[in-house]
Write a structure and sequence with these properties.
heterodimer, A: 265 residues, mainly alpha, MetI-like fold, 9 helices, flat, B: 265 residues, alpha/beta, six-stranded mixed sheet, four-stranded antiparallel sheet
């Protein structure tokens, strides 16, 4: 009974959070609208003009589309890389486990911006293979995210009770069957919240792709800002756009986390 | 005399510097119930775990039915995972901590081995599982997840899960030690009925009364060796070895103490 009460009270929190955030957004939009018509110069004398952005709406839309597509692709490939390397790191064979460890540490201990630039400019020189900006960007973002996913997945696996593995072994299951049927289904529940929050990071990290001239939301924003000389409005809009996409995602993540807690078996 | 169903020869196992099993040999005939008793740390659980190779021996030989594996220290060519899995599938193990799969219902727990390991068709696995659940008196709990079952019910499902593999031998590793006292009886009753059905069983237990009633052979272990083995009328009631006498005396003293405490309460 206690456990139920605890879960219920926690479920209430995101609802309240939504109200607060909603209020803030409405207040922000109202303020913006007041300045939109240029009737009020505000304390710093800057005249906000969000109306000027309307003409560039197609650029913003295509930028958002790029951001979303890159996020989806890099989350999917990142998860795949993370699953494979996460399991490989559990191997008893150092020839398998050590290179995985090296990959993870390299990706985690260098900034993504540096990796992006390195993959695009340095890797072709080393290998002689030209990479398109799109490919280099998708690859390095996937590998970067994969390193973090890998640690989450590995953590989920090793935190699963060893008795579960033994029970699977005692039934005559092979390690692969135990992983697939017994360990991963249990571990996955625990992994969902951190995987979601890492995926949110992935979306935000796509903003770095603009350095390779990938026309994502931030890149298009920069184009528009240079075009119409309205950087404050542009970056405000971009911030709001990222926020509008990610807030539901974080709320969903919270929901799933609580959902897991209440159906914990 | 026919060859024994289970034959353990010169089994040795060390954990680091600590020698847990010193040259153990034990034969078990088909349909025989063997109880392994002894103080904590005497090696009885390790011996049991060596029989289904959850713990790999350092030396000696383990044979269960047609499967035979010999170990010879570091020169041993360790069986690969597939061979190990096959060997284990011929034994059924019941753990102290139940180790039911929490993400599966009681029925799915019992069906898991046959479906994944034996590739039994689902309908057949389900009808077998239901009849096994009714054998342990839990057919009406078939759709329940483990967290909705009492400890005794969990352990009975775990017994049904092990039986579903139609094992050559059932291994019980202190199957009642984690249970509340009032739940011990229901599990022991299931084990008794298995024994009277002619199931070959090796039971590591602290329940001396149960061993006396059900076992054909009692093995008393001390410091990694079999100190005394024979019918319960000898090992439990008229032990010949000093250490066995001392253990039984301590045991009956503690039972009397508990009984007098219960009377006072």
């Amino acid at each position: 009974m206690n456990a139920m009460g605890y879960v219920e009270s926690k479920v209430g929190q995101p609802n309240r959070a939504i109200w607060w955030v909603g209020l803030l957004i409405i207040a922000g939009v109202c303020t913006a609208l007041r300045h939109w018509h240029g009737s009020d110069a505000g304390p710093t004398g800057y005249k906000w003009d969000f109306g000027a952005l309307w003409e560039s709406r197609k650029l913003f839309a295509s930028g958002m589309a790029y951001t979303l597509v890159f996020t989806i692709v890099c989350v999917l490939f990142g998860l795949l890389v993370g699953l494979v390397t996460g399991i490989a790191r559990l191997s008893n064979n150092p020839l398998i486990a050590l290179p995985m460890r090296a990959y993870i540490e390299i990706c985690r201990c260098t900034p993504l911006l540096v990796q992006l630039v390195w993959f695009y400019y340095a890797l072709p020189v080393l290998t002689g293979i030209e990479l398109s900006a799109t490919f280099a960007a998708a690859m390095s973002l996937s590998l970067y995210g994969g390193a973090f996913y890998s640690e989450i997945i590995r953590g989920g696996i090793i935190s699963t009770d060893w008795g579960q593995t033994e029970a699977g072994k005692a039934l005559g299951m092979t390690p692969l069957q135990i992983m697939k049927r017994i360990v991963l289904p249990q571990a996955f529940k625990k992994m969902v919240p951190p995987l979601m929050s890492q995926s949110i990071m992935q979306l935000k990290n796509t903003s770095l792709l603009s350095v390779l001239a990938i026309p994502d939301l931030l890149y298009q924003g920069q184009v528009v800002a240079h075009d119409i000389y309205r950087p404050l409005e542009v970056y405000t809009l971009i911030a709001l756009a990222y926020f509008a996409v990610l807030l539901p995602a974080t709320i969903l993540a919270k929901r799933m986390e609580l959902g897991n807690a209440s159906t914990e078996r | 005399m026919s060859t024994p169903l289970i034959s353990i020869k010169n089994l040795r196992k060390s954990f680091g510097d600590h020698e847990v099993l010193k040259d153990i040999s034990l034969d078990v005939e088909r349909g025989e119930v063997v109880a392994i008793i002894g103080a904590s740390g005497s090696g009885k659980s390790t011996l049991l775990r060596c029989i289904n190779l959850l713990t790999l021996p350092d030396g000696g030989e383990v044979a269960v039915g047609d499967h035979r594996i010999a170990f010879d220290g570091i020169r041993t060519v360790l069986p690969n995972n597939r061979q190990l899995a096959k060997f284990r599938a011929s034994t059924g193990m019941v753990f102290q901590q139940f180790n039911l799969f929490p993400h599966m219902t009681a029925l799915q727990n019992v069906m898991e081995g046959p479906i994944t390991v034996l590739k039994t068709p689902k309908a057949e696995a389900e009808s077998t599982a239901l009849s096994l659940l009714s054998k342990v008196g839990l057919v009406e709990r078939a759709g329940f997840y483990p967290d909705k079952l009492s400890g005794g019910q969990k352990q009975r499902v775990a017994i049904a899960r092990a039986l579903a593999m139609k094992p050559t031998v059932m291994l019980f590793d202190e199957a009642t030690s984690a249970l509340d006292p009032e739940l011990v009886g229901e599990v022991l009753n299931v084990m008794k009925s298995l024994a009277s059905d002619g199931t070959t069983m090796i039971v590591v237990t602290h329940e001396i009364a149960f061993a006396r009633e059900v076992a054909d052979k009692v093995v008393f272990m001390r410091n990694g060796v079999v100190a005394e083995a024979g019918p319960p009328s000898v090992v439990i009631d008229n032990p010949t070895q000093e250490c066995t006498k001392a253990f039984m005396a301590r045991h009956s003293a503690s039972t009397t103490a508990i009984a007098s405490l219960t009377r006072v309460a």
